[in-house]
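Bumping with the actual sequence this time:
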Amino acid sequence: MAYWLFKSEPETWGWDDQVKKGGPEEWGGVRNYAARNNMRAMKKGELGFFYHSVKEKAVVGVVRVANEIHHDSTTDDPRWECVDIEAVKPFARPVTLDEIKTVPELEKMVLVTHSRLSVQPVTDEEWKIICAMGGVEA
């Protein structure tokens, strides 16, 4: 199973919005080829971190890929596709980017090396470490 990280500005679409949705939500509006290609690689049932970007800069919960790649309904441009995700569980406590940067095993994490990428892969080891930091079972 692959793991992922989905970044969103909480003022636009935050963890609470994802939870309130109560089911799958299209992860639309992504206009970066690398992020889109990451979504193309996703399989239904894979898990990801929900990350609040900009001010908070923290992993706040776990989401699941509910539906694989399909056309992004926020555009008519056929180049842009997305997946649907659903909330699984919140972190017991948010794990900030500053904390992540202090862990030597996470120094090569995409979040650290390419922090602007909105949809990114997470390795098995990174997944386990961050889940432990956030107080959730990997």
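The tokens above came from a reply further down the thread. Residues 23 and 68 are 15 Å apart (CA to CA).
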